[in-house]
Amino acid sequence: MEDKKDKKKIASDKVFLGHTPSEARKFVVYFLKNNKEKFPKIHIPCAGEFSLIKCALDAGYKPENISCSDISLFTTLLGNYFAGKPLTTVEFHTSERCAKDLSNYDDYGHKVAVLMFYMKIHQYRDYFFEQLKLETILDGKEAFIEQMYQKLEKMKAIYGGIDYFEEDLRDAIVEKKDTITIINPPAFAKGYEKMFNFKDDIQFETKVPEFSLSKEYGVLFEKSTTLDSPFLIYSFSNLHKVSSDYAIFAKEYPKGRTDYWLINNRKFYPEKPLVVFMNDDKLKPLKLEQFTEGELREDSKIQAFVMKEENCLYYRDLWAHKLGVTKAELYVGFLIDGKLFGITGLMLNRARSLQSNEVFENFGFVSPNPKYYTLNRFLMMLLTSKQMQRFIYNTTNRNRIFKIEDFRTTCLSKYRKVKLNNGLLNIEKKEKQGQWYKLMYSTKFYDRNFSDCVKLFLDELKNGVNNGGEE
Question: pTM of the prediction?
């Protein structure tokens, strides 16, 4: 009997990676709803996975009044399928094994599903865990193709009737009567090349040179400002030297990134431009007392627990005065006799993908306590203990094949080493960066539990060992 759960997983990975973010799509729907009477037609170059076409439909545009274009094989196959154009209009070549699978089907939908299968299998990287996923798809090829076909049929029910054609983005900046043009141009260098390298199974070439966001965005937008029809153009990460006067939507992201929708003419400015700020209110404290006073005793109870991101980052900002973006995959809090004294953010992606056996500490902070100014060392003792190793492993259930054997972290210091790490971590790499040293530390997990760490830390305090500092 077929395992429905496994079958469902076969086609779960997306073929096209990347799309217009959610808030930006919602704004497009709002903008179109307020302009569709005056501009009943819409054209969308760089159609990608058709998310902006869905915005047009949600805004009330009829499929026959929507045209779109692209240059990738993925979008061209789908676009022609939705537009009712034959597969023969797309020029590509296939390997013998791909051609054999295509010959098993007569209809366009299944043939596209076969091509999607070959696109997908070439997207997996040469990591052990991804190769396991690849084997699953290869073993379930027929199931993948059938599920992809069913998905295509559902998409055709939504997008059927739109017009599609291959078009260079640069050629889309022309006057179009009664038409709004919406463009989200390619943002990453060699994005299509990386996403759609099908090796020998599918050969598809476009004569269109790759679009350079940094070099061409300003030129493209400047050209649109000379036209009388509205052009709504997405600007990824920054304004790319375009005046902010053209911005009608802005969304803040971490690491100083802000995305925009720009309008080519102020006369098309909406009633309500929108700015979406990063919301610090999402960071929330826990109903826990902090270990800002009190005593650590030999019989103190130490507990580690998984935290939510908004809770952990709240204390990170509270104790470290907003050091910037330091997100992680696993957030952990530590209690001393029920009081919160430490937090950490850990990265496990390299272990989960079986590239290494390491867990990487992105950040670790402790509550200020005047009695224990070396609490950071105590936190590091806990983090490098075998009990913590078991805790990490037991709280991760995505892939139980991996192992965690090494602990790594980095820090910036004015000195060649951080004294608090002496005897706990080994310097693996040291790099001078201006007035600072970037230090990579690592260690195997120590064979001790949290109670052992308490005794060790208290003994060090008693004997005056490791009073902190840098050297």
Answer: 0.61
